[in-house]
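Bumping with the actual sequence this time:
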Amino acid sequence: MTYKDCKIVYVFNEEFLKYDFGPAHPLRPERQLLTYKLLEALKFFEIDRIRLEKPEMATMEDLRLFHTSEYIERVKRLSELGYGLLDLGDTPAFKGMFEASAIRVGATLTAIRLVMNGICDHAFNFSGGLHHARSNQGAGFCVFNDIAVGIKYLKRNYPSIERIAVVDVDAHHGDGTQYAFYDDPSVLTISLHEDGRFLYPGTGFVSEIGTGTAVGTSLNVPLPPGTFNDAYLLAFNEIVPTALKTFMPDIIIQQFGVDTHFSDPLTDFMLTNHVYAKIAGTMHKIVHEICDGRYVILGGGGYNPEATARSWAIVFSKIAGVDLPEKTPAEWRDFCLKKYGIRTSDTIFDTEYHGPSSDKRKFLIEAVKRVVEEVKERVLPLIPERK
């Protein structure tokens, strides 16, 4: 089977739009619809080996795989009230919050189930990737942690899966997921993110390596603000393939947040969406080399809805093995403008980029090289090699 023969499932439901913290909140639910509409306008869903799938709602039993009963009941209570806070202010309650969150977890479980049951090789749920939530609290716009629930679901339902890897490329550290499995040697968490000294949640340092028998299964690559294409790819290519080929997971879950984009209003990275195509291409090759193509791709950050939609379409196309046209479809541009008042790029790939100066680039490359060397020296040798 060639990579272009892979069966792909895209999990989507307009119910995702109900995960809405209000008009002033930076996490915009419309980015889910903009991504779907772009892929639809590009005729992806007319390809025989690509199918749409509606998610099933996560059950209480599913949610309890990771979250405490007390926390789930609190979410339900605040969901009925329609107000309150799940953290210090970033994650406010809203009417219908429980159902809107459970459907997103259910979408990740649907994606996992389709991959594990052989219905498809790769499955996408861009509504997922909510990596900050802990077992007993919400955090960072995340009510439930669908990644952690998904891993627990894999462990419960598919005992043949002995090792699971999570690759998180969001600008924010995947703290909730990391700490959920900090003492579990069967789960490798890899997170490339902006240095916690400069960005929420303030964690994800190289020294966070796991505990007990799980030492070496938490791998963090904290990168400096201003990190641009070449510097980011240097870190990714030097660390991620080696870590995965050492650990040899049976399935890879990827949190593909794109708040690393240069236009993102909340973060300080300077990537163009050309980088996402390269990361997706590398990951697609790796999953076929080491885990029979079992690959679940989730969303995450991305606070410029237009750039987020184009970036996720690029990720989808690369993994699906379908070439993209140069221009964004006129019908998609019209939809964005009429529905949301959003003016979109004429091209799918970024053509404009205001990155750091040449002197700053040299500084950043050297800074990233130092991080890479530290990870290579302190963490890579600790990853438990599969026998």
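The tokens above came from a reply further down the thread. Residues 3-322+351-382 form a domain with the Arginase; Chain A fold (CATH 3.40.800.20).
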